[in-house]
Design brief:
By secondary structure, the chain is α/β, with parallel strands linked by helices. Helix content is 47%, strand content 12%. A seven-stranded mixed sheet has the order 6-2-1-7-8-10-9. A three-stranded antiparallel sheet has the order 3-5-4.
């Protein structure tokens, strides 16, 4: 007999507080009127932990040391990971026949493509996109910098997505020929082949808690965003707040693909609606404007989804360090009029978040031309270079940022991600361990500088997950 009765749990005076905490943490208002479903899942967790009362479980999930792990475990049970490859054929047909031809034609001069699969669960959706791109458009995108970002709030799902192994049931909408060509048999499962896996990266992202667009979080300037069967779990108020953020995370002309059961189209009036057989697509189309000049750098009011500008920096003390020899493109930056550092970098971030990579890079270079020892400018320059596909220059800029400020956490973290994507496991491990060392002096709830609301606890957990995955690979 179960130690925890779900019916008694619903009647517990502490259950409403627990339910509110779950909804605030995940945004899943789906459970607001489903007490019995939530209680059944919570009761199972309490049973596993040997916790006999709601108040004790509430104490556990709010504990500053153990609460995050338990909340992640609870989220893993609350979220639905059942999905399969090429789910909803009509939408993949629309991607192949309408969206991708439009995006590839517009991006031909830049040879770059960015796609976000939001709420990717165990990964079939982003991998389906990679398969479609390779098989249907492979010759056309040869030599392109292609990035498919899969995000979810379920850490277990993300770990399974990175592994890329699936049971037979995941292929119920996939032809045998596609499965044989794109996957290899591993025991009773099928593992996606490396040539299709290479386009895809997975990362944690909470749509209701993490700001976006955000260059720091790699959630910005997408050509295509796919968010299917995710926001149906959110309240109407939450969805209304998210739609402008999705729009601002797209480049001009970018496309948003929502699920069949998503809210009414009134929410998407700021997009151009395109009806295709079996699907409705949304395209960001802005009013024609003249290209924004790089100067002057006075900032217009930021959209509420945009990160806040960084605070003014303290005046730099004269450095006793010898100047760093500059090489490559950086050496060719001409002497320019000095820029206010905070205003310059805020403008660079604003431009980068909407995909104006060249303009953002120009501002970073001007800031560096005025002060070659500005570590933040080198760091943001590295992020922009990575989006432009300039891999070697990105690594140089990241390492220069670390050299100039070894206490800055994010350059170490992004160098770890960079090296991991290059399959340099030892270097990635070293960078991630450097992050953990730097985080030792920070409280879990302390924001990371320039991190767009990222806290030390969140980063610590994410880095730990990366190290576990590297160790298991």
């Amino acid at each position: 007999m179960s130690m925890v009765d779900p019916h008694a749990l619903v009647a517990d005076p502490f259950f409403p507080r627990l339910k509110l905490l779950v909804i605030e943490t995940t945004g899943m208002a789906f459970y607001a009127d489903k007490d019995e479903d939530l209680a059944r899942i919570v009761a199972a967790r309490m049973e596993d932990l040997g916790v006999g009362s709601c108040v004790r479980y509430l104490d556990l999930v709010t504990d500053k040391d153990r609460g995050r792990d338990e909340m992640d475990a609870l989220v893993a049970e609350l979220t639905i990971g059942e999905t399969y490859f090429f789910r909803h054929k009509e939408q993949f047909d629309a991607l192949r026949d309408t969206i991708l031809p439009d995006v590839l034609a517009r991006n031909e001069p830049f040879r770059r493509l960015r796609i976000w699969s939001a709420g990717c669960a165990t990964g079939p959706e982003p991998y389906s996109l990679a398969i479609m791109l390779k098989r249907e458009f492979g010759a056309r995108i040869a030599g392109w910098h292609v990035s498919i970002v899969g995000t979810d709030i379920n850490q277990k799902f993300l770990a399974r997505a990175r592994e890329g192994r699936y049971d037979e049931w995941a292929f119920r909408a996939t032809s045998d020929e596609t499965r044989q060509v794109c996957f290899e048999k591993v025991g009773r499962q099928w593992a996606i082949r490396s040539e299709y896996k290479s386009f895809v990266n997975f990362q944690y992202h909470n749509l209701t808690r993490n700001k976006f667009p955000s260059l720091i979080d790699n959630i910005a300037a997408f050509d295509i965003i796919i968010c299917r069967n995710v926001v149906i779990y959110f309240s109407p108020e939450t969805v209304r707040a998210l739609v402008p953020c999705f729009r601002e995370s797209l480049v001009e002309g970018g496309w948003l693909v929502m699920g069949h059961a998503e809210p009414n189209m009134e929410l998407f009036r700021s997009f151009r609606s395109v009806n295709v057989p079996g699907a409705v697509l949304y395209q960001r189309v802005d009013q024609p404007v003249s290209p924004a000049p790089v100067v002057p750098l006075a900032l217009a009011p930021l959209h509420p989804c945009m990160p806040l500008p960084p605070p003014d920096l303290p005046k730099r003390r004269p450095s006793s360090r010898p100047p760093i020899p500059l090489t490559g493109k950086l050496a060719a930056v001409p002497a320019v009029k000095p820029l206010p550092l905070a205003a310059g970098m805020a403008r660079a971030r604003e431009l980068a978040d909407i995909g104006h990579w060249d303009e953002a890079l120009a501002i970073c270079d001007r800031v560096i031309g005025a002060d070659a020892l500005d570590a933040r400018a080198h760091f943001f320059r590295a992020l922009v270079l990575e989006q432009k596909g300039e891999v070697e220059a990105c690594e140089v800029a990241l390492r220069r940022a670390i050299y100039l400020d070894r206490q800055a956490v994010l350059p170490h973290y992004h160098l770890g991600l960079f090296l991991w994507r290059k399959a340099e496991a030892q270097g990635a491990q070293r960078s991630f361990r450097n992050v953990l060392t730097l985080l030792e002096r920070l409280r879990d709830d302390q924001p990371i500088s320039d991190g767009d609301d990222l806290t030390a606890g969140q980063l610590r957990e994410t880095v730990g997950m990366h190290l576990n995955l590297i160790g298991a690979s």
